[in-house]
Amino acid sequence: MNISSFSHYQKATLFGVLGMGIGFIAFLYNYYMVPSTLFGYEVIAAPAMFALSFFSEETYFIPKMVILLFGQFLGYFFVVLIVMLVHKYQKRFLKS
Q1: For a Cys staple, 68 with which of 8, 31, 41, 48, CB 3.0–4.6 Å?
Q2: Which of 8-12, 27-31, 62-66 has the lowest mean pLDDT?
């Protein structure tokens, strides 16, 4: 299975899932290593923090974790998809 044979949506989904994993690992590190902070955590988990910004701090942990992971997935998915589509159309317009 070669990644170059995947469609744009499949590649973006793969990166979205990887982004979820990265966000979850960064969250666990930040959650359990209270005295120290992970360098770049705000950048790595920016999509998740944006999704969580619409909810109060009184939200229960499990729904908040689902929102965090879903926001992380959507953020990485759309960024990768937009970059790939811009790259595709840029190639198309530069040829002509």
Answers
A1: 48
A2: 27-31
| Nearest of 31, 33, 22 to residue 69 by alpha carbon | 22
**What is the Cα–Cα distance from 49 to 22, expressed in whole angstroms?**
14
What one-character-per-residue DSSP string does 3-45 give?
A: GGGS-HHHHHHHHHHHHHHHHHHHHHHHHH-TTS--TTHHHHT
Listed by start position, the domains of the chain span 8-95
- Give just the sign of the alpha carbon dihedral 36, 28, 59, 14: positive
| Calpha distance 31→39 (Å, rounded) | 14
* pLDDT for the residue numbered 84: 92
